[in-house]
Specification:
Arc Repressor Mutant, subunit A; cytoplasm; EC 6.1.1.17; 3-stranded antiparallel beta sheet; mainly alpha; glutamate-tRNA ligase activity; 467 residues
């Protein structure tokens, strides 16, 4: 069997769209799960719209998602000479011809066709012209598309798609200025790069029929097609800005972990039984083209958040801290101090549970990130009334000699609550306020263990004194 080679081929005209990211992921998973290659080609033939900044944004988005490609990034524009060479080869084989029709003549043909209510598909008068009649004038090179029969796209996702050849025009390969068109460049690049499977959005489905004409004329193997439905918004309409974030970098800036994003995008239009949550290794092992649905997938932020929460909970602490720092960098936030980084490392065990995004995790970590004097939110300030402050002042000496294990801290605090004629639950509010300046925090015991004896007692003492 031929080694699997897939490619992701974005146009560098803007950010990495969420739909493009899913296409890249599908190509990546299919290749990686079969020991194949995943290649990256930047389709920068449109010189007016292609920018270096957009290319950088695409590479950055793929890097964040962890979709590492094989080999160097291929520039389509850099292959113009090769594309030109193939067009001339098709011309020499009699599979293409020189067309001297001007833009004005082509438009006049179409205008007449519209008035006569017939097909506006341009039929060049130069298709079978005697070369002796060729004028000394600029010309385009057009592919000689078969005029009879059908072109059948055997698509893994869409099934067999049949297009009558009389519905296809004689596609331009080289413009009159000698520049190759995108449709030719795509085919030549895919062939030269050894691409075996073309996995892309179904908005390219009609292109496949025209591109197959080039493969056939050159005697090249046609790749396996898999045209995947586009992503729609929750309302079932084509994804647009009104539905929220479109660019991958926006999802990073919102604090979604890359592993959760990969998991969600893989499930967006593809399924493996009833599995919702899965690891990267499972995705590579399970992913196949047959599991891709024909209908557009709908973006669902609740599902995304749910999966991201599960990935945060199961992540290795060191890897999670590294990604958290990358998130802070992406949002322009101040970097962590050594003390904060150390505290987060110690406290990750109690921060990961039930945090769906990095902002939520950072909110839970406020007790680590804060420094004295502790800034109180409104609810925490209310919890520290004069009575509560008095209780904390009485509690602090009781903790001085605690061994600072969870069991010992629980014993001391529960005994103190009993002596005060109350239950520990009544102490929890003032303790949370004193330790974190927040009413909603991780467990009081977890915070005290992470902060350590000295810092915990200093915060309780400050709160008890009204500082």
């Amino acid at each position: 069997m031929t080694d699997v080679v897939t490619r992701f081929a974005p146009s560098p005209t803007g950010y990495l769209h969420i739909g493009g990211a899913r296409t890249a992921l599908f190509n990546y998973l299919f290749a990686r799960g079969r020991g194949g290659k995943f290649l990256l080609r930047i389709e920068d033939t449109d010189k007016e719209r292609s920018t270096a900044a957009a290319t950088a944004a695409i590479l950055k988005g793929l890097d964040w998602l962890g979709l590492e490609h094989d080999g160097d990034v291929v520039s389509q524009a850099a292959g113009a000479a090769r594309h030109h060479e193939v067009a001339l080869e098709l011309l020499a084989k009699g599979k293409a011809y020189k067309c001297f029709s001007t833009q004005e003549e082509i438009e006049a043909f179409r205008e007449a066709a519209r008035e006569e209510k017939r097909s506006t598909l341009f039929q060049s008068p130069w298709r079978d012209a005697d070369p002796a009649t060729h004028p000394d004038a600029p010309y385009a090179i057009r592919l000689k598309t078969p005029q009879d029969g059908e072109t059948v796209i055997d698509d893994v996702v869409q099934g067999k798609v049949t297009i009558r050849n009389d519905q296809l025009d004689d596609m331009i390969l080289l413009r009159s200025d000698g520049s190759p068109v995108y449709m030719l460049a795509v085919v030549v690049d895919d062939h030269d790069m050894g691409v075996t499977h073309v996995i892309r959005g179904d908005d390219h489905l009609n292109n496949a029929a025209r591109q197959m004409g080039i493969y056939t004329a050159m005697g090249w193997d046609v790749p396996i097609w898999a045209h995947i439905p586009l992503i729609h918004g929750p309302d079932g309409k084509k994804l647009s800005k009104r539905h929220g974030a479109l660019g991958v970098e926006e999802y990073q800036a919102m604090g979604y972990p890359a592993a959760g994003m990969r998991n969600y995008l893989a499930r967006l239009g593809w399924s493996h039984g009833d599995d919702e949550f899965f690891t990267d290794d499972q995705a590579k092992e399970w992913f196949n083209l047959e599991g891709i649905g024909k209908s557009p997938a709908r973006l669902d932020f609740k599902k995304l958040e749910n999966l991201c929460g599960q990935h945060i909970a199961q992540a290795e602490d060191a890897a999670l801290l590294q990604e958290l720092e990358a998130f802070l960098g992406a949002t322009g936030a101040a970097p962590l101090t050594d003390a904060q980084r150390d505290g987060l490392s110690r406290g990750m065990f109690c921060l990961k549970e039930r945090a769906k995004t990095f902002p939520e995790l950072l909110e839970k970590a406020q007790f680590i990130l804060a420094s004295r004097p502790i800034d109180m939110d409104e609810k925490a300030a209310k919890a520290l009334d004069p009575v509560s402050r008095g209780i904390l002042s009485a509690l602090t000496p009781q903790l001085q000699n605690a061994s600072w294990t969870r069991d010992d801290l629980e014993e001391v605090l529960n005994r103190f609550a009993t002596d005060q004629g109350t239950k520990f639950g009544k102490l929890a509010g003032p303790l949370r306020a004193a330790l974190a300046g927040r009413a909603v925090t991780p467990s009081v015991f977890d915070m005290m263990l992470v902060l350590g004896r000295e810092e915990s007692l200093a915060r309780l003492e400050a709160a008890g004194n009204g500082a």
